[in-house]
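User: Let's play a game. I give you a shape written as tokens, and you guess the letters that built it. Ready? Here's round one.
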């Protein structure tokens, strides 16, 4: 018995594997990135073992990730549902978020070039631009659908209210937000709002940035530049506390005969049949592990056990530093 079926799920009107591939790790954020040749080999292996949904963004490596994905999909474009994102600028003179209609169109053209394709199946606003009405941004993206350049509209890290306003202008295919046993903000309102308006919820970091994949034991040993080293949950006494939760979680996985990553993914997918997950990795072994048990259904009692162990009250530290929190539109829990 399970809380939700793990069979193929619908995203932008297409049935696909509920576990897609987040491509960010091939360019940025978590330690040393693979060589381009290794990255392309990983993407090809992903297709071979059943991944049919790749998620990239202009931000990842400042165009490197889109370029790499474009190279990997030469001759294979029809095998993958391709998602990308625009709106965050983190280099050069322009920094911050810009989702003005003219910017959206210009950024899409750059992405099409880098990805070596004439259409992107799902195009996201990477963050809310608080200076532009969401209706204006969505209207501009709807025009791109009419032109055949994108297949569907997505939002990332936005609130239930923003989703409803956006959906009143044009159907929103996806809402992408961090979600795992140790990051529960989506449960405040967004998961329900997605179900209400017919939007698929796309969970990024579904194995808690590697923590629930038994991938982090000592955050300070991570390589320089790894974004986790600056996140509150990975620092000092917060990490000492959180590591004890991880050890208990790992024990549950061992008892159930799955890996910690597989357990975390099953927990996420079990929270609703309108949810898909996009774990990322730079290693082929992890890529294969993440999808190997894609149809394993977590028992209700195990979900309840995890819910009691790891939740908003038991995890020490916020998911983001204060400066980042100000840029996020998603609902948040009150400070303790």
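Assistant: Ready! My guess for every position:
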């Amino acid at each position: 018995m399970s809380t939700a079926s793990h069979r193929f799920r619908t995203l932008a009107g297409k049935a696909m594997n509920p576990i897609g591939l987040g491509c960010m790790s091939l360019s940025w954020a978590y330690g040393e990135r693979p060589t381009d040749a290794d990255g392309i080999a990983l993407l090809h292996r992903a297709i071979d073992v059943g991944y049919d949904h790749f998620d990239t963004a202009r931000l990842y490596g400042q165009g490197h990730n889109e370029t790499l994905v474009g190279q990997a999909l030469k001759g294979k474009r029809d095998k993958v549902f391709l998602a990308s994102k625009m709106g965050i600028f983190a280099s050069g003179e322009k920094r911050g978020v810009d989702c003005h209609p003219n910017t959206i169109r210009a950024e899409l053209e750059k992405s099409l070039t880098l990805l070596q394709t004439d259409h992107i199946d799902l195009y996201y606003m990477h963050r809310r631009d608080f200076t532009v009405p969401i209706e204006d941004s969505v209207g501009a993206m709807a025009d791109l659908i009419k032109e055949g350049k994108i297949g569907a509209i997505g939002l990332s890290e936005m609130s239930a209210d923003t989703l409803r306003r956006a959906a009143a202008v044009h159907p929103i295919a996806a809402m992408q937000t961090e979600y795992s046993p140790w990051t529960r903000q989506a449960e405040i309102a967004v998961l329900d709002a997605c179900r209400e308006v017919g939007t698929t919820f796309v969970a990024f970091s579904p194995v808690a940035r590697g923590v629930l994949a038994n991938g982090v034991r000592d955050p300070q040993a991570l390589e320089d530049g790894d974004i986790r080293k600056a996140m509150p949950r990975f620092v000092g006494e917060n990490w000492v506390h959180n590591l004890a939760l991880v050890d208990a979680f790992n024990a549950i996985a061992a008892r159930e005969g799955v890996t910690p990553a597989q357990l975390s993914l099953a927990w996420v997918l079990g929270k609703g049949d309108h949810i898909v997950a996009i774990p990322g990795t730079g290693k082929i072994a992890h890529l294969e592990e993440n999808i190997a048990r894609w149809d394993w259904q977590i028992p209700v009692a195990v979900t309840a056990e995890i819910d009691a162990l790891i939740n908003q009250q038991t995890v020490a530290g916020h998911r983001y530093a204060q400066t980042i929190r100000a840029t996020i539109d998603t609902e948040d829990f009150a400070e303790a």
